[in-house]
Amino acid sequence: MPKVTIDGTVVEVPAGTNLIEAARQAGVDIPYFCYHPYLSIVGQCRICMVEIEGAPRLAIACATPVTDGMVVKSETSARVKEARDAVMEFLLANHPLDCPVCDQAGECLLQDHSFTEGRDTTHMVETRRTFPGLERRLLGPHIVQNQNRCIHCSRCIRFTQEISETAALTYKSRGNHAFIDTFDGQPFTDPFSACTADVCPVGALTIREFRFRKRAWKLRSTPSVCPGCSIGCNLWIDHHERTVYRFTPRENPAINATWLCDWGRFLPESLNEAHCLHPLHRVEGQLHQVSWGEAVRALALDVSAARTLRVVASANLSNETLFLARELFVRHLKGELVVPVHPGEPRRMKNGKGEWLSSRDAHPNSEGARRLGLELVDGERLARFLYGAADLTVILDPTAHPYLSTAEALQLLRVSPTLSLARTNHPTAEVASWLLPVASLASDEGTFTASGGHVQRFQPAFAPAGEARPAWQILQLLARAMGVSALDLDTPAAVFAAMAAREKGFSGLEWERLGDGGHSTYREHQHVG
Amino acid sequence: MEPILLRARGVPDSRHIDTYLAAGGYEGLKKALTMDPDAVTKEVLDSELRGRGGAGFPTGRKWTFVPKDHPGPKYLICNADESEPGTFKDREIIEYDPHLLLEGIAIASYAIRANTAYIYIRGEFVRWARILETAIAEARQRGILGASVMASNYRLDVWVHRGAGAYICGEETSLIESLEGKRGFPRLKPPFPAVVGVFGKPTVVNNVETLACVPSILTRGAAWFASIGRPRNTGPKLYCVSGHVRRPGVYELPMGVTFREIIEEHCGGIRDGHTLKAFFPGGSSAPVMTPDQIDVKADFDACAEAGSMLGSGGVIVLDDSVDMVEAAANLAHFYAHESCGQCTPCREGSDWAMDILDRILEGHGRREDPATLLRICQYASQGMTICPLGDAFALPISSIVKKFPHEFERHIAAATPRPPKKLPVLPWAGPRPGFDGQ
Amino acid sequence: MSTAAIHAVPAEQLTHVTFDATMEERIAELLTHYPTRRAALLPVLWLCQERYGWIAPGVIEAVAARLGESPAFVQGVVTFYTMFYTSPPARYVLQVCETLSCAVCGGRELLEHLKTRLGIDLGERTPDGTFQLIGVQCLGACGSAPVVQINDDYYENLTIEQLDALLDELSQGKEA
Questions:
Q1: What is the pLDDT of residue A523?
Q2: Contact, A429 vs A276, CB < 8 A?
Q3: How many Cβ atoms from other residues are within 10 Å of residue B358's Cβ?
Q4: Distance between CA atoms of A343 and A401, rounded to whole angstroms?
Q5: Which of A49, A444, B266, B291 could be A470's S-S partner, Cβ–Cβ 3.0 to 4.6 Å?
Q6: Which helix (H) or strand (E) holds B220?
Q7: What ipTM, to 2 d.p.?
Q8: In percent, how much of chain A has pLDDT > 90?
Q9: Which of A86, A136, A151 sits opposite B379 (nearest CB)?
Q10: Measured between beta carbons, which residues in chain C are less than 8 angstroms from residue A181?
């Protein structure tokens, strides 16, 4: 592998690596705007100039592959600093100084590099170029455009041409008056439209749903996995004060590179809903608040006493929860357990190699349920499963299948006592004898198995609302109360270890090494988190 | 000197293939077809022919860069974009002698083993595109182009491809992008077109005048061609003279005449009552030269030594009636209009320079303006941009600032501060409608 | 020599464009010149401009569909080049060269004269739709400055008198 010296640090990198990536490994951050690791290299912004020993002119780092013995100066070259200073001045010549009212502030490459490379004065005294009418325009349902701020990096255009393949965006006109637009100004309805705001290095394209809801530097980021379908895109939950504000893509070359589809991206709003905050018990038709201690003690007796026990699990639950449920309800109590699944809208994602992954499965963990040997059923078979009386029906996730909200299902559930975990208002609450508040994905911890077989960890962003607890913990408490000490595992990591020791589908996996697969994730702005 | 490139100018019916054949046309191609393609390249290499489009790169060398063992198709592109201000020589060749160009194209294509050649002609040249199409049809009909060029089993198709109004498409990688049906954004180099060119295949891009030199190199030999001019600066050259001379036009002269000969002898000198103030030796993208440099030889190396460049040979002559700040502003408008907008220094710099020059002309110059202009020019050239358009706008403007400082001083001394901008107060027009009324 | 007038098809007739047999035939011929469909984009656009007088959004959609490109891509290309009309042009488009050689050799005076005579500014058209005035950059005929291109034709070494006579002739509709 070629060895290259960057600002005095020697690194060895695979042949073909460009100088930006090589420098990153040497701990040197070369600034850039138009470069993106998953898009083609165009060399337009000219900020990544470096000095290469023996070359008369400065070179752009993004388009220069390493060669063995190359000696590169970035921060240590006066010529480079001057050139970058000049490029920053060019970029800022027409860029509005509206950072205080710009929602990109705090995660803006222009702002960052202006701080590191630029100066606080300009020679520019002319009137700035503006784009009347394109200053606050809805480019599409999710994207707001402010063309005045555009620095012509063409990342958004390349995204639609190379990744989403709609080629829905283009430059119109040319020179300094070129602007980003769709065909004839029609709505930008690309299914990955919000990614264009991700790749936009400045505030020219921002996400309508997130605009002005929270300053970027207030947000904390927690690694998680998209619950929207079975592809398993990696994402960050961006949150502040126990509210989820957005999902942003987290790099995983094998699954979602650095992208998210609009469907998955706009799910986080649903994570903030929490209507069921305390354990509730129905007595004489009325729900009464009880403590967790009372609830678990009473339920442990009910569950143990049930001769016919049926459990509706869910492909939305983590591997750990499903494993505990199977061990407790099926192996230990000899109950019956099904995992209802239903097909979702077709979803697609492009991985880092440019291959499309697709899914028609609305659940994030059907593959995990399958690998745990659980029985996956459709709505028809779920109905048959619920038909007839049982001593106790346990519903681990009322949103597991739309059938559970139907009048027919409620009719069936009324027949026998029902225990349901619940977070949001759901019709099953009307018939359940017990309701236990459960945490959302943002407050849960565990793993999902993506349709491609990757077992991926998600982490808790903040504590659950009210008295809610993660589903795995509710099962652990039940197991403890019933004296099943083998299942009294007090962390998801411990559950995972037990599972990995027993299950073929998880053998050899270690909790600590799951997740980002050992590579450093590509992120232009690291929030504390 | 006997005319070589313009020998058909003034000949009746000169465009017709019969006229061309009667004058010994297509003999060069006939000879080339009997030779090994590499021998043809060698002949052009020995002639020391340098590209006439502006860069002056040795043509034979360019041909040798095409990988010989490349299995797929290769392409020759004739650059007839002729968009450099001050240049109008290619049009002259096409107008009078389209078959001379076609013969050059055929020889060059044979030398690089290309079976398809495109003539990329600027969109405004509708008449000349038609002339070329007629000439190609004639040549195909006579078996000079097509499935078997002059019965040699060498296949060559030539197509005319019209541009649509973009100066930048004269730059070879931008031309290639445009030919592929895209916006004319220049490509990063390397890879160079000779290796990865149009449709990803090895491609040679040569200027019309360059290719028009090739037939006579074949018929008369490299030594004869090299005997015109001086070493490294050989052959006949078309000088396009415009501006304030008595007889502007295209002149075919041996490479290396002085600008004095061109301007004073051939063009009859500066128009009555005026004196020479400045001239651009090679199109508007060359640094400006002053009357004391009039004895410089009009060839590649002499112009470079004099701190300018021969470029395309478009000599723009300006007399003492011209305000050089106005000239700079005029060129700044041109380059700001023609910058493709792809890379930062050229896009922002050309526009910014234009704004400064316009402001000076409006009477609101500032003392720091010349220094700011020089700074813009410095950082928009010399490798700061993807293609040479950065240099093309920076060199003439910075040279005017440096060589005519007193003209800037005069404007600036008389300047008044710009009145403060009045911000418009817009009436409240209700919320802006979005797609769903929000 | 008389310049052919442009007959721009009105926008409302170009909302949905289908190419007729003649157009299809010519497009098919153009496609044989290139190894990719995309490369035929500029020639096909020229063909459309010849046929419809300008490149309406409906034309862009038809071209995009024919060549397998997105309409946005085609519109991006159309707007990069200055010679494609994105709104219906007047019958005669007067393209006055504004670059250096023409500017210093009478081009500026010519332009001022045209503005006064036609009563319009750059980029505007006369109310009767006969003339449209645009400033263009170097036309590549600097030796015969000043130069005005009217539709497809070059008029060189123009004096104000010659231009006036020319406009008289064109506005009398001899050709149209």
A1: 67
A2: yes
A3: 14
A4: 10
A5: A444
A6: helix B208-220
A7: 0.96
A8: 90
A9: A86
A10: 72, 75
> Which of C42, C76, C141 is the closest to B88 by Cβ?
C141
DSSP secondary structure letter of residue A250: -
> Distance (Å, rounded) from C-alpha B76 to C-alpha B40?
15
In the structure encoding, which two tokens stand for residue B298, read together?
């009009």
**pLDDT given for residue A120 in this prediction:** 82
| pLDDT at residue number A159 | 98
Query: What confidence tens digit (pLDDT) does each residue in C60-97 have?
Result: 999 999 999 999 999 999 999 999 999 999 999 999 99
C-beta of residue B206 within 8 angstroms of C-beta of residue B197: no
SS3 state at B116 = strand
Question: What's CA B108's distance to the chain center, in Å?
Answer: 19
Tokens of B131: 């002339």
Residue of A nearest to B417 (CA): A125
- Per-position DSSP letters for A84-111, written without gaps between them: HHHHHHHHHHSS---GGG-TTTTS-HHH
pLDDT digits (tens, 9 = 90+) for C152-165: 999 999 999 999 99
**What's the distance, Cα to Cα, between the start and end of chain A in Å?**
35
Instruction: Sort out which chain C residues have CB atoms less than 8 A from B127's CB and list them.
Output: 152-154
pTM above 0.90, yes or no: yes
For chain B, which ranges sit under pLDDT 50?
A: 437-438
Residue B419 DSSP one-character state: P
Side chain identity, residue C162: Q
CA B412 to each of CA B361, B363, B369, B407, B409: distance values in angstroms, whole numbers, following the listed order: 9, 7, 9, 9, 5
| Beta strands A343-350; A356-361: pairing state | antiparallel
The residue behind tokens 């005294």 is: A125
How close B438 gets to chain A, by Cα (Å)? 10
Give the best residue of A160, A183, A188 to mutate against chain C (max C CB count within 10 A): A183
- List, in order, residues 6 or more apart from C109 with CB less than 8 Å away: C160
At C112, list the tokens.
Answer: 């001022």
| Among the listed residues A184, A229, A200, A98, the one whose alpha carbon sits nearest the alpha carbon of residue A142 | A200
User: Do the beta carbons of residue A137 and residue A108 sit within 8 Å?
Assistant: no
Whether residue B374 lies within 8 A of chain A, CB to CB, comes out as: no
Residue of A nearest to B434 (CA): A138
Looking at this protein, which amino acid is placed at residue A516?
D
Residue A143's DSSP bridge partners are A207
Question: Alpha carbon C5 to chain centroid distance?
Answer: 10
Dist CA B168 CA B341 (whole Å): 10
A163 in contact with chain C, both atoms CB, cutoff 8 A: no
Amino acid letter for position C170: L
Tokens standing for residue A349: 């994602």
- Say if the Cβ atoms of A175 and B188 lie within 8 Å: no
Residue type, B55: A
